[in-house]
Amino acid sequence: MVYEHEIPRGARLYFGANAKLKREIEKRASDILYMHGYEEIATPLFSYHQHLSVEDQSELIRVSDEKNRNVTLRADSTIDVVRLITKRLGRSTTHKKWFYIQPVYRYPTSEYYQIGAEFIGSSKTAEVLKTALEIFEKLDIKPLLQLSNIKIPKILSENYGVSLDVLKNVNIEMLLEAPMPWLQKLLYLKRPEQISEISGEVPEEIENELLKIKELADSFAYDNIIVAPLYYAKMRYYDDLFFRFIDKNSTLAMGGEYESENIEAAGFALYTDNLIEILEKKGF
């Protein structure tokens, strides 16, 4: 029996002070994004292309259109933003910097509000990362920043036989047992300055990708930072430099470089509901 007051598990309800806080977060973020030249876009709730974004297809909520073609609820905004700007609106605008404030949905009934930004035609991870940092500063939050490079786990999988599943699940025991002593150095790498210390001790192709992480870390001033070279993002499109903002066990934002429709881009998404939870505890 479903009572009249019940809502599905994972669905969101905002009211009163909670709704006001949500609106304040969105306003402060959008003010900063407008200041940096971003324009707003709201993408359709229904999409034909969400399978290109989400690695676990079982997370998609599926329906059918009038021709019985497979349609899914928006589970991720990034690829749809790039596709719509370049393919559908290409003749109407040449603008490259876009942001969105909207929810995404995952099976069976999970709803997540996001504030996202995409810089299309650019791989300037440092620029979008600094914009995300500005938003956190405006909200008086200083989360842990994790820097990674998705090319490293892909190289390990393609050239050294390390399963991506092992990396996704952070199976430390199997990584320690791998017959590559330098892999342990990557496992215990935590600070950007440590990258220089292992120069020449890891394969050159991996060292080159590590140096890109260090270069990114050196491009801005922030002291609450770690590196995680073995981290593998579960979103299909991230394929290079990648970052996450974390507070305890909660992810507040993630972003980085990716390619869609042979177009380079960089962007990030803030997780509004996790931000609300933190700010409520702080009495914001």
Question: Could you walk me through the main structural features you see in this protein, from its secondary elements to its overall organization?
Answer:
The mean pLDDT is 92. This protein folds into two domains: 1-142 and 259-284, BirA Bifunctional Protein, domain 2 (2-Layer Sandwich); 151-232, no CATH class. The protein contains ten helices and eleven strands. The protein has helices spanning 16-35, 78-88, 125-138, 151-160, 164-168, 172-177, 181-187, 194-197, 204-217, 272-281; strands at 39-40, 46-47, 62-64, 70-73, 97-106, 110-120, 144-149, 225-227, 238-247, 250-260, 263-271. β9 and β10 form a beta hairpin. Helices cover 36% and strands 25% of the residues. It is globular. With 284 residues, it is of the alpha+beta class.
Structure described in brief:
This protein has 284 residues and is an alpha+beta fold.
Task: Draw up the topology in text.
Layout: H1 16-35, E1 39-40, E2 46-47, E3 62-64, E4 70-73, H2 78-88, E5 97-106, E6 110-120, H3 125-138, E7 144-149, H4 151-160, H5 164-168, H6 172-177, H7 181-187, H8 194-197, H9 204-217, E8 225-227, E9 238-247, E10 250-260, E11 263-271, H10 272-281
